[in-house]
Amino acid sequence: xSTIENTCDSTKCCNATAEEIAGIRKALDLYCEASVKGNxxxxxxxxxxxxxISYVENGKLVSxxxxxxxxxxxxxxxxxxxxxxxxxxxxxxxxxxxxDSKFGETCFADMFTLVKxxxxxxxxxxxxxxx
Length: 131
Fold this sequence. Notes:
Elements: E1 13-14, H1 18-37, H2 40-43, E2 47-57, E3 60-65, H3 67-76, E4 81-91, E5 94-103, E6 106-117, E7 120-130
Parallel strand pairs: 1-4, 2-7
Antiparallel strand pairs: 2-3, 4-5, 5-6, 6-7
């Protein structure tokens, strides 16, 4: 099940209101819930259509459309997932958020860039590494 293991307090979040954190969590919860249910359609509303995912593989930068993540959800199927916010910085309608996450048995360090689109926060980029 998707879980948030800590709250964003003044030591974790800079310049963020409770409303901003709730909106950011909504996007991150969808990101995590898609893994729990093995269904990429759940995560799609959390991401901008032009979002990217980036990582290093064999010492080389890889940056691909977010569809690669959606394919991962659909290929791996149902698996437990959780995350905890480790840092968050908000400047009005943009945010940089770091989380520690676990999908199945694999732990990740993730960094997200989000932009407020109307009332919703959208992830525009995800960068990660396996821990």
